[in-house]
Amino acid sequence: MRITVLTGAGISAESGIRTFRATDGLWEEHRIEDVATPQGFQRDPALVHRFYNQRRADAARAQPNAAHRALAQLAQHHQVTLVTQNVDDLHERGGSPEVIHMHGSLLGALCAGCGHRWPAVLVMRALDPCPACGKPLTRPDIVWFGEIPYHMDRIWEAVQSADLFAAIGTSGMVYPAAGMAQYARRNGVDTIELNLASSAVSRDFTDRRIGKATKVVPDWVATLCR
Q1: Deacetylase sirtuin-type domain location, by residue (predicted)?
Q2: Do 79 and 186 belong to one domain?
């Protein structure tokens, strides 16, 4: 079976990584415009780097949970395309063989000048020179608001050609990810939502399982791997 899985912040929440829209969310200490837009980076690159350096440290301390490990098990039994909105590496450390990071990764650095990419160090600074062009324009390799997510042609193809599309721990409020279930259904693909609560696009799913990711994801995977 060909299964395309989309994961959001909810799958990493039980590993201690705070979610974007929760009441105790990571972002409420800062305005989104200040830390998650190209304009915010231009205004105060030092603030943006402090913000993502802390996120990188938090992600490094976090450990994969049962939901991450279950998806790795699923890939051993089916043809799985795993797409994540998350910028942590918990899927990889949980054993998933290949992960498409549509919003970038905390483990990557990007030159805002020439576009060169390289592995991020734990603490990055705006004045760090680009290894390719030498300019001090280092930024996190994260897709900010107003920027185009990565690998979208590949992702839409995976959604369209799947036998089953699953969304796990997503709010359904950030596009284009929020439109994937509807796109899947228009192409005759079965859809399932696994979430702590109904999302903003729950109506687009033909099946739904509500509960903690560490419970509902392993249980769902078990039904597919019998």
Answers
A1: 1-226
A2: yes
Q: What is the pLDDT of residues 56-88, one digit of tens each?
A: 999 999 999 999 999 999 999 999 999 999 999
Which residues carry a binding-site annotation? 8-27, 52, 55, 85-88, 111, 114, 130, 133, 169-171, 195-197, 213
Predicted TM-score of the model (pTM) = 0.93
Q: 213-224 and 66-77 helices cross at what angle (nearest 10)?
A: 10
Same domain, 205 and 120: no
Q: How many domains does the chain have?
A: 2
Residue type at position 38: P
CATH of the domain at 164: 3.40.50.1220
Asked whether the beta carbons of 149 and 123 are under 8 A apart, the reply is no
**Active-site entry in 49, 77, 103, 151:** 103
**pLDDT tens-place string over residues 106-134:** 999 999 999 999 999 999 998 999 999 99
Final residue belonging to a domain, choices 83, 114, 142: 142
Q: What is the pLDDT of residues 181-211, one digit of tens each?
A: 999 999 999 999 999 988 889 999 999 999 9
Confirm whether 103 is a catalytic residue: yes
Domain that holds residue 96: 1-17+64-103+150-226
Specify binding-site residues for Zn(2+).
Answer: 111, 114, 130, 133
CA nearest neighbour of 47 among 62, 35, 59, 65: 35
